């Protein structure tokens, strides 16, 4: 099974690929890239990957909300939005008032804090979370999102625990007065109007103690954005939304290579993927603390692996939202909006730690003529049958992974990208030695 990894010297399977860093912009954030300077060999090779067309300015807020302290979490979020992006070489922080994003994404259950509903931690039951449940558009998360969207004139996505009340109790369940809970993501536009309420479809085992499954088909929406240069024009961008576990196999029971979420991204011809997350690391607390302002590459590697179909299969959308011509190929922008920090567990239970490492990347495909190879293309037939049923493409394409911003594992602040600018790092696929 082909696996894509970020550290060239590491081979996870007999047949695998590695992501080789081809270039690193001089504007790359030093705090995020220190780890790469010794682990990834790369020579500066700057070029402009995007023309000044529509483009998009994307921001995420990575922070460590405190358990149950909604008012305090809102204050902390507002503080970070004012000066949470440190300018390299200047040492001062700037906020979203200056960065002017088109869309802002917060983590899963951002203002409530994830452990409120973690079975075996603080509140193991539905009753425990009831004080924090919010009807669609009516709770503190929605109020904050509306105010922030109006103030910044951008779309805002925020994760929250939803309660939906039906008119009648479900048949055969008189104890339930028609109430259903969901782990949801609310999306509001620049005027504060709700444009989407997506409900998490693939539940982590701790979600199952209180939440119902949502419909994955409702995770697709055409977002409307103003043109950067001509405010009278608008662009419709096909967008797929997901929440954390959505990118994993269903209940960890379906095959790893089913790629349910990634295949839906391709089937809907999405050009933008928004992932609101509360992802925990696989490393120990000591290892996570030692990373500090460096990203957790194991987590980042895994996220990329869960999107392998976007690397191996041909993208279906006809025109990029930024108006690039065909010479630049096709691309899908992906936003990983994770949280950081640690939450205490219940008596006798371990605390919940989060991996941070929020990132804004794009997977690009550029058609190329067959020639003496260079780098292995995902469209090439790699000598032998493929247990995944990989298709041999009629016209192979080169794949690059552009990375504009990659936050540290424990960092609080703003992750930001202007997709018309050069990326901070560019990765290309190369066949790993066996």
Describe the fold and architecture.
- Residues 378-391 have a biased composition (Acidic residues).
- The chain is α/β, with parallel strands linked by helices and 434 residues long.
- The protein has nine helices and 19 strands.
- Strand 11, helix 6 and strand 12 (272-276) form a beta-alpha-beta unit.
Layout of SSEs?
Layout: E1 4-5, E2 17-24, H1 30-39, E3 57-62, H2 70-83, E4 85-86, E5 93-94, H3 96-99, E6 103-105, H4 126-129, H5 140-152, E7 155-165, E8 179-188, E9 194-199, E10 220-226, E11 234-243, H6 260-267, E12 272-276, H7 285-291, H8 297-305, H9 309-312, E13 330-337, E14 342-343, E15 352-353, E16 359-367, E17 397-406, E18 413-418, E19 425-431
Parallel strand pairs: 1-2, 3-6, 6-7, 11-12, 12-13
Antiparallel strand pairs: 2-19, 3-18, 4-5, 7-8, 8-9, 10-11, 13-16, 14-15, 16-17, 17-19
């Amino acid at each position: 099974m082909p696996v894509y990894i970020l550290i060239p010297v590491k081979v996870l399977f007999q047949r695998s690929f590695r992501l080789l860093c081809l270039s690193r912009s001089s504007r790359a954030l030093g705090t995020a890239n220190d780890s790469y300077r010794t682990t990834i060999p790369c020579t500066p090779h700057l070029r402009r990957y995007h023309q000044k067309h529509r483009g998009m300015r994307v921001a995420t807020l990575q922070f460590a909300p405190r358990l149950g302290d909604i008012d305090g979490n809102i204050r902390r979020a507002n503080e970070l939005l004012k000066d949470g992006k440190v300018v390299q070489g200047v040492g001062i922080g700037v906020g979203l008032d200056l960065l002017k994003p088109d869309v802002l994404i917060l983590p899963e259950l951002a203002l409530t804090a994830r452990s409120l509903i973690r079975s075996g931690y603080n509140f193991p039951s539905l009753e425990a979370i009831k004080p924090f449940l919010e009807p669609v558009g009516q709770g503190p998360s929605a109020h904050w999102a509306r105010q922030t969207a109006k103030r910044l004139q951008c779309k805002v996505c925020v994760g929250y625990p939803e309660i939906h009340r039906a008119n009648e109790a479900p048949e055969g369940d008189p104890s339930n007065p028609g109430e259903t809970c969901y782990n949801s993501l609310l999306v509001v536009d620049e005027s504060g109007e709700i444009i989407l309420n997506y409900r998490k479809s693939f539940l982590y085992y701790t979600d199952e103690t209180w939440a119902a499954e949502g419909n994955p088909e409702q995770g697709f929406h055409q977002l409307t954005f103003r043109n950067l240069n001509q405010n009278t024009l608008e662009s419709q961008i096909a967008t797929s939304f997901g929440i954390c576990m959505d990118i994993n196999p269903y209940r960890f029971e379906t095959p790893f290579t089913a790629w349910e979420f990634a295949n839906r991204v391709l089937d809907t011809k999405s050009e933008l993927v928004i992932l609101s997350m509360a992802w925990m690391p696989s490393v120990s607390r000591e290892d996570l603390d030692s990373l500090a302002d460096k990203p957790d590459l194991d987590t980042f590697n895994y996220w990329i692996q869960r999107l392998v179909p976007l690397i191996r299969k041909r993208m279906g959308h006809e025109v990029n939202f930024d108006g690039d011509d065909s010479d630049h190929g096709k691309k899908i922008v992906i936003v990983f909006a994770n949280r950081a920090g640690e939450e205490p567990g219940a008596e006798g239970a371990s605390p919940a730690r989060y991996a941070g490492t929020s990132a804004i990347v794009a997977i690009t495909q550029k058609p190329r003529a067959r020639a003496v190879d260079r780098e292995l293309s995902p469209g090439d037939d790699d000598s032998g049958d493929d247990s995944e049923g990989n298709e041999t493409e009629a016209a192979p394409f080169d794949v690059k992974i552009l990375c504009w911003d990659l936050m540290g594992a424990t960092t609080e602040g703003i992750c930001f990208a202007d997709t018309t600018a050069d990326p901070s790092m560019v990765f290309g696929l190369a066949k790993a030695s066996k």
